[in-house]
């Protein structure tokens, strides 16, 4: 909300700079900043066009003689289609500075001298979408004669100074100038004064054509109307127009502008309807039917049964609290008008505005809340302005659809308790004075106080709110600095956090980059990687269909990251995420939050260079990353990898479960080709591990050992085995039968092809034996080696080669 200082002066004395006021308001808890419009503007004056002649060398240019208050008229060449003799216009003289660094100089346009520029509003700093529509494609023309040579800044509000207040949802009372005047006035101990709007009693009539009915009274606690007849719609005065466009509102006509002005002044949205365009004179506020249509100026919205509407018979006039339709819009031909002021349920307005993408000034105020104590006064003020600008012949009394009497909030507390909570020792009079500065009524009886809160501050309801107000106005910067008392808590990470950080550092050291993804997924995403077979957790009110469910895996987010990068020609990807997934058992309402670490690798893991060849990511590279992490957990567990085809979106021939002592703790694998194609990613390998399960494993006691003093002995073993037998099974059997001196087993050769039995493969293993306390003999090694071979032949029917 931008608070105009010139406007603010109508309510309170303003003697401070806009920068000082912004700083002062920020210290009270509402973040604010100064706005100085048009600081760069210079040499802009009123010009009076005294004569116009066609340009001799152009079809559209005109040579204008312009009175700018000097001894003689100056000549300006202008190409605007609406330029005409006798107009009072904006003139940028020689040397003038305009927005975006534009400087005006004397020159010639097609041979004709031009000593300045006749300007449109957009050329002097008013955005085109907020200036009157009639001047969109031409120069701005004053409606009334002005003094040639006078500066235009104050006339048009081009150099208005403002305090831009960043309103929090609980302080919607400052979304109107009057509420802002209370707030700023309280910071300077200045109580604002307001003029009560009054109507011409001679015009008020008991007769009325319109009736009002509210069917959803819980959603519409207040709904009031007034008729004005015999009006003549025209332009609103310039002072009002400049205040509107400086609030980013386009001036339309004297009726619509008056309604918008009251919204800024009071914070209460006002709507206007052409009375003669109504299908029936019975106005109803009700829920729409599925399929009802709201015609806007540039589109049609299809409504449903959850939308609260203003209707005249079958005619939908507007979406309540959000936006009016075009069917009963006020225009230059309107002679009878109906003004509306109401209070609509904030949640209903927010959902409707979001559903139809129609967020605006009205819905913003109703969402945050409006003062139901000034609805009638705001309607009187709007009626007063419309009558003032259009000279109505007849004004009806208030037509009531629903009315709820606004009652002030009464809060009781103790002076001593307020001081205790603030850590201050203010006197009762000081606290009372602060509360009265805010316009609150205070009654004191000894230590007890009773504070009556006006309806404009509907955010206050308990004693803590009173304490906050005293704190704000007293000044947070004035609170004493004290060190905290009591037991100190030693800082540091928990054991589990240290454990997860260790895993994270391993992947960072391996060259992977960490990413952070949103924890909400689409239904398809949670179905694609529900590897833990959990129930889905859906939000009650999701923002979009892509963010409906809490994630049950980190993989979908990583796949999106890979797709995003590869679409931008960044094909070599190594990323990981350490975060929580949500596992909800069938018999549980709330999901469990479980810590996971997942990664995705695609493209080259070694770049092509003068001394190295490019190396693409594969299953074994990713398996190596996982094995390194598992090794660093220092867990007293047996980790195994078991091939699986259970996961639909992973390649059935390149996927394995990761087990710890037989319990599944994660998986690694290549994305299924169909899944890769559907998500526009190249070959990608992924892994996912449950950190909570890893952390729960027993830890090994690690003891330092001296380097072996005795040499090791190695043996190589080549076998022919059926293709379906897994390497892990063979290695496990070798260790089981290799004896206590077998230290390591590595596979160094795999061959499948010609000169082998069908459905067989040739494997080569390197076995290393070591006795740390003595020299091994060939007899000992050969004995163990023979047991290994015999067991492989017996269990797996291998052929020793």
UniProtKB/TrEMBL annotation:
Mg(2+) binds at residues 459, 465, 468-469. GO terms for biological process: phenylalanyl-tRNA aminoacylation. It catalyses: tRNA(Phe) + L-phenylalanine + ATP = L-phenylalanyl-tRNA(Phe) + AMP + diphosphate + H(+). Pfam families: B3_4, B5, FDX-ACB, tRNA_bind, tRNA_synthFbeta. Keywords: Aminoacyl-tRNA synthetase, ATP-binding, Cytoplasm, Ligase, Magnesium, Metal-binding, Nucleotide-binding, Protein biosynthesis, RNA-binding, tRNA-binding. Its EC number is 6.1.1.20. It is found in: Cytoplasm. Gene3D superfamilies: 3.30.56.10, Bira Bifunctional Protein, Domain 2, Ferrodoxin-fold anticodon-binding domain, Nucleic acid-binding proteins, Phenylalanyl-trna Synthetase, Chain B, domain 3. Its main location: cytoplasm. It is an enzyme of class 6 (ligase). Its cofactor is Mg(2+). Residues 406-481 form the B5 domain. Residues 38-153 form the TRNA-binding domain. GO terms for molecular function: ATP binding; catalytic activity, acting on a protein; magnesium ion binding; phenylalanine-tRNA ligase activity; transferase activity; tRNA binding. Binds 2 magnesium ions per tetramer. The keyword Magnesium applies. One of its GO terms (cellular component) is phenylalanine-tRNA ligase complex. Belongs to the phenylalanyl-tRNA synthetase beta subunit family. Type 1 subfamily. Tetramer of two alpha and two beta subunits. PANTHER family: PHENYLALANINE--TRNA LIGASE BETA SUBUNIT, PHENYLALANYL-TRNA SYNTHETASE BETA CHAIN AND LEUCINE-RICH REPEAT-CONTAINING PROTEIN 47. This is Phenylalanine--tRNA ligase beta subunit. The gene is pheT.
């Amino acid at each position: 909300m931008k608070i105009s200082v010139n406007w603010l002066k109508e309510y309170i004395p303003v003697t401070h700079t806009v920068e000082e006021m912004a700083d002062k308001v920020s210290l009270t808890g509402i973040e604010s900043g100064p706005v100085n419009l048009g600081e760069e503007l210079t040499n802009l004056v009123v010009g009076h066009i005294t004569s116009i002649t066609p340009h001799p060398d152009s079809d559209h240019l005109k040579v204008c003689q312009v009175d700018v208050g000097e001894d003689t008229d100056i000549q300006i060449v202008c190409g605007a289609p609406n330029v005409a003799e006798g107009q009072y216009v904006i003139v940028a003289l020689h040397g003038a500075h305009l927005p975006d660094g534009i400087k005006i100089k004397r020159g010639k346009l097609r041979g004709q001298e031009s000593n300045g520029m006749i300007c449109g509003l957009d050329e002097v700093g008013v955005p085109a979408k907020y200036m009157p529509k009639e001047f969109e494609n031409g120069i701005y023309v004053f409606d009334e004669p002005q003094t040639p040579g006078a500066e235009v800044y104050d006339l048009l509000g081009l150099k208005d100074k403002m305090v831009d207040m960043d309103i929090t949802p609980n302080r919607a009372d400052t979304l109107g100038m009057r509420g802002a005047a209370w707030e700023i006035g309280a910071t300077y101990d200045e109580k604002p004064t307001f003029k009560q709007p009054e109507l011409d009693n001679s015009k008020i009539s008991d007769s009325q054509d319109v009736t009002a009915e509210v069917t959803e009274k819980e959603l519409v606690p207040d709904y009031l109307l007034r008729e004005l007849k015999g009006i003549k719609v025209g332009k609103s005065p310039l002072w009002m127009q400049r205040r509107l466009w400086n609030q980013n509102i386009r001036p339309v006509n004297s009726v619509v502008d008056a309604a918008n002005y009251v919204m800024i002044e009071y914070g209460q949205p006002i709507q206007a309807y052409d009375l003669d365009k109504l299908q029936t004179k019975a106005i109803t506020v009700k829920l729409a039917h599925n399929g009802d249509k709201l015609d806007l100026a540039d589109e049609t919205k299809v409504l449903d049964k959850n939308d609260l509407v203003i209707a005249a018979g079958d005619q939908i006039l507007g979406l309540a609290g959000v936006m009016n339709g075009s069917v009963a819009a006020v225009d230059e031909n309107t002679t009878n008008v109906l003004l509306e002021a109401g209070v609509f349920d904030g949640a209903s307005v927010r959902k409707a505005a979001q559903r139809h993408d129609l967020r605006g000034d009205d819905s913003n105020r109703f969402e945050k809340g409006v003062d139901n104590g000034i609805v009638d006064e705001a309607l009187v003020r709007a009626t007063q302005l419309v009558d003032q600008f259009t000279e109505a012949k007849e004004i009806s009394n208030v037509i009531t659809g629903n009315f709820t009497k606004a009652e002030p909030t009464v809060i009781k507390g103790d002076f001593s308790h307020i001081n205790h909570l603030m850590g201050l020792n203010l006197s009762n009079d000081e606290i009372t004075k602060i509360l009265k500065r805010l316009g609150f009524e205070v009654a004191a009886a000894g230590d007890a106080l009773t504070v009556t809160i006006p309806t404009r501050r509907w955010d206050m309801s308990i004693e803590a709110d009173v304490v906050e107000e005293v704190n704000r106005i007293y000044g947070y910067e004035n609170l004493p600095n004290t060190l905290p008392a009591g037991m100190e808590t030693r800082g540091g990470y928990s054991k589990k956090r240290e454990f997860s950080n260790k895993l994270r550092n391993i992947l960072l050291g391996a060259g992977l980059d960490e990413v952070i993804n949103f924890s909400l997924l689409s239904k398809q995403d949670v179905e694609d990687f529900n590897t833990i077979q959990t129930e889905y957790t859906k939000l009650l009110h999701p923002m979009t269909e892509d963010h409906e469910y809490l994630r049950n895996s980190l993989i979908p987010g990583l796949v999106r990251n890979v797709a995003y990068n590869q679409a931008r020609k960044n094909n070599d990807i190594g990323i990981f995420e350490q975060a929580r997934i949500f596992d909800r058992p069938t018999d549980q309402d709330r999901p469990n939050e479980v810590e996971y670490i997942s990664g995705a690798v695609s493209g080259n893991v070694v770049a092509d260079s003068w001394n190295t060849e490019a190396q693409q990511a594969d299953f074994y590279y990713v398996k190596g990353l996982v094995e390194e992490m598992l090794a660093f957990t220092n867990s007293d567990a047996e980790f195994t990898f078991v091939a699986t085809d259970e996961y639909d979106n992973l390649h059935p021939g390149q996927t394995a479960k990761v087990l710890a002592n037989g319990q599944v703790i994660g998986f690694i694998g290549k994305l299924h080709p169909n899944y890769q194609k559907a998500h526009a990613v190249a070959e990608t390998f992924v892994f996912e591990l449950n950190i909570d399960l890893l952390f729960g494993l027993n830890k090994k006691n690690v003891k330092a050992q001296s380097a072996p003093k005795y040499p090791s002995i190695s043996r190589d073993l080549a076998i022919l085995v059926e293709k379906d037998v897994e390497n892990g099974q063979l290695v496990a059997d070798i260790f089981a039968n290799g004896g206590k001196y077998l230290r390591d087993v590595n596979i160094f050769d795999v061959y499948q092809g010609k000169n082998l039995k069908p459905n067989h493969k040739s494997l080569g293993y390197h076995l290393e034996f070591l006795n740390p306390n003595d020299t091994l003999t060939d007899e000992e090694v050969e004995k163990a080696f023979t047991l290994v071979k015999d067991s492989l032949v017996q269990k797996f029917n291998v052929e020793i080669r």
